[in-house]
Amino acid sequence: MNIATLFGRLFKSVREYTKPSILSPVFVMGEVIMEILIPTLMAGIIDKGLQKGDMGYTVKMGLVMAAATMVSLFFGVMAGREAAVASSGFAKNLRADVFHDIQKFSFANIDKFSTGSLVTRLTTDITNVQNSYQMIIRIMVRAPFMMIMSLVMAIGINAKLSIIYMCVIPVLGVALYFMAKAAYPRFDKVFKTYDRLNTVVRENVTAMRVVKSYVRENHEEKKFTDTSKELYTQFKAAEMILAWNMPVMQAAIALCVVLVAWFSAKMIVGGTMTTGELMAMITYSIQILMSLMMVSMVFVMIVMAGNSAKRIVEVLDEDSTVADPEHPVTQVADGSIEFRNVCFSYSGDMGKLALANATLSIKSGEIIGILGGTGSGKTTMVQLISRLYDPTSGTVLVGGRDVREYGLHALRDKVAVVLQKNVLFSGTVEDNLRWGNENAADEEIVHACKIAQADGFIREMDKGYDTCIEQGGTNVSGGQKQRLCIARALLKKPAILILDDSTNAVDTTTDAMIRKAFREEVPEMTTLIISQRIVSVADADRIVVLNDGRIDGIGTSEDLLASNEIYKEIYDSQTGGEDLAASDEASDHNSVISHAFDGKPEKGGVK
User: Fold this and answer.
1) Pair 244, 179: CB distance under 8 Å
2) Residue spans per domain, the chain
3) Percent of the chain with pLDDT over 70
4) Which of 488, 521, 523 shows the shortest CA–CA distance to 502?
């Protein structure tokens, strides 16, 4: 796409700010007309008033010129006001449109753009486009209009002198074209480096505790410095090209003024031009050339914004790989799940499968444990259930229907997922819990927290459910954060609950209490528990063992101990061959200690 097409695509976001976008150019043209009249009025005052000693004419034309100046000032103020309203509103709508599109992205779409890149596009890139839009509806209207009107007036005064401008303007146009052609690809590199710089900063800030724990401040500082230096080098290379813009324009202005003065002086001596006309010609020549300089300034901004516009359009034109069907099913019958020969590849390459030929049937209300080593496909498998990704081949069914037949909202409303990376948001404990159900009654919130074994430590906080959670949940421990996320998921009253290794930070006894509460309080809910701990899945109705993206075994703990080598190996390594019941009794003593500290957050948390 060329720059005009890119901006045309973005200008659809102007919407309700179309009126100020039109009024600004109208006021600009009024301002220019008044400014164009002033040199002609001044020439009349000199030639017909001052040189002839007609003070009455001089005063009359002086008042007219003062009135024209005031009208020009009014139009200029109004043009600036409307341009500011239009550009700010356009940027607001554009940010909303981009953010709205990002919300519809599947995980595959999000994988395509880094977080740092999306942040840059929503901030720096849109600000560049906003500034360019303000210049387009104001300066890009004012400069060409001023140049044309000044040229017309100059031709009216002396057509021969006007040839000077006609020769200079094409030369400047060619120079600007070659500068744009050379600078544009360099700015493309600049904004990609901006993305990496934002990613470096984001990683450093969010992982500050890890950085300090491993004493990696110097490494992080070097990484930031290197990226920042690269950005400086690229920006300098691009700006050095555009830096030629000003000297070229100033040289053109100086040359034109000298030529006009030289030839005008000869004409005045020859009697073919008056002093007033000379003053007007010089003023018009300055207006013409200043208009060209304004165009060149806008040109620089548009070259920079062209890359930003391209990056924004990439997000707006990105189609989600997961979308609602034409006639979506809106009701999930039950929590049954079935995988029919499912294969999945993150790259779409069937030679690089993260999940291969998975076939599995789960009844509604079953508790299923999923076990396997790192990279075995556990998380990949459960992400297909709520259509965070779609299978590369095969079919995933929920409630007896292909998940691709459901509306995304209907399906995801009945599938609650507690991911490995638990996220809490700034706000109170209650605010975070209401993400599961914003209309939940207080009793429902407390009940969900009791099932998740969170009610106890919440009540021990200073303000209970009104305690503020800091950004990222830094003032609660890992185990507390996990239990709050489980409670939040339960408030959705889902047909299917997926716990993706989301109890690894709680002690084994609390883990057992959570699983027991699931059986007793929500027996109709299908529960999938991904875990690295045998104890977390041993009492499940069935356990699925995954190995290298394939289902290696399915059955109860007893069945798998007798028939599956992988399960037996994990079991022996974690229990030392002891019976899990005996192991649980030993853990009861440890749980006394853990519960004694339950509710007391780590250093820096709520007292």
Assistant:
1) yes
2) 3-316, 337-585
3) 94
4) 488
452-497 residue pLDDT tens: 999 999 998 888 999 998 877 777 888 888 899 999 999 988 999 9
Which CATH architecture is the domain 3-316 placed in?
Up-down Bundle (1.20)
Task: Report the alpha-carbon distance of residue 520 to residue 453 in Å, rounded.
Answer: 14
Please tell me the distance from the alpha carbon of residue 506 to that of residue 514, in angstroms, as a whole number: 10
Tokens 């995980």, located at residue: 107
- Per the DSSP assignment, residues forming a β-bridge with 406 are 329
Distance, C-alpha 210 to centroid of its chain: 26
Q: What is the dihedral angle through the alpha carbons of 367, 373, 377, 379, rounded to the nearest 10 degrees? A: 60
Contact assessment for residue 534 and residue 571, using Cβ atoms and an 8 Å cutoff: yes
User: Which single residue is written with the structure tokens 């901004």?
Assistant: 301
β-bridge partners, 358:
342
d(CA 450, CA 454): 6
Record the tokens describing residue 326, joined without a space.
């034409």
| DSSP category for residue 329 | B
Reported CATH class of domain 337-585:
alpha beta
d(CA 156, CA 159): 6
Angstrom distance (rounded) from CA 600 to CA 582? 29
User: Cα dist. 488→171, 341, 586 in Å?
Assistant: 67, 33, 31
